[in-house]
Design a protein that fits this description.
mainly alpha; about 75% helix; single chain
């Protein structure tokens, strides 16, 4: 009887350790997904900007703070990429908190569209160099919307996938 009780306590302790390890592992995974998602899609935005598909480049993130003209040159665009990567970590945690349990392509695309709407519509006043949405070219709107949709898909689906993997790994280790 005492032996069964000891075994159950050991199993609970192992389960708690596995959950703690899984939780910290998942947190670091979310950080990496956010960082690399921001950098990858920031680079895609830079290429689209450089090839004149859009009037908006990664340096948009510098607009509220950098007052010089250098921010709109190549150096400003390149500096904007890692800053987007860092801010993207926060975006990834927002997705984790709100939608982690949903493994849905549509939800991830809607998340990306929501971020695009927040950036280009709600936050437009804090970006002095960003034209109002009605004044942007159709190419810029379509290109940036597509990049944000793919960014949302990358963040959302990656986080949901790793959440399911961690959940299955914990369940497997308990058996």
């Amino acid at each position: 009887m005492d032996k069964d009780l000891d075994e159950r306590e050991k199993e609970k302790e192992q389960h708690n350790q596995a959950m703690g390890k899984s939780s910290s592992s998942f947190t670091s995974t979310v950080v990496l997904i956010g960082l690399f998602g921001g950098i990858i899609w920031g680079i895609v935005l830079f290429v689209a900007y450089y090839l004149n598909f859009t009037e908006v480049g990664p340096a948009l993130i510098l607009n509220p703070w950098a007052l010089s003209a250098w921010k709109n040159k190549v150096l400003g665009q390149l500096i904007g990429i890692p800053i987007i990567g860092i801010l993207s970590i926060g975006v990834a945690f927002i997705y984790r908190v709100l939608f982690v349990k949903f493994k849905s392509i549509l939800l991830s695309l809607l998340f990306g569209a929501g971020i695009w709407g927040i950036t280009f519509y709600l936050l437009n006043p804090i970006f002095p160099d960003l034209k109002p949405l009605k004044d942007l070219s159709k190419d810029s709107i379509i290109t940036t919307l597509c990049i944000y949709l793919l960014y949302g898909l990358f963040i959302g689906y990656s986080i949901a996938y790793h959440y399911e993997e961690d959940k299955n790994q914990v369940a497997y280790s308990n058996n």
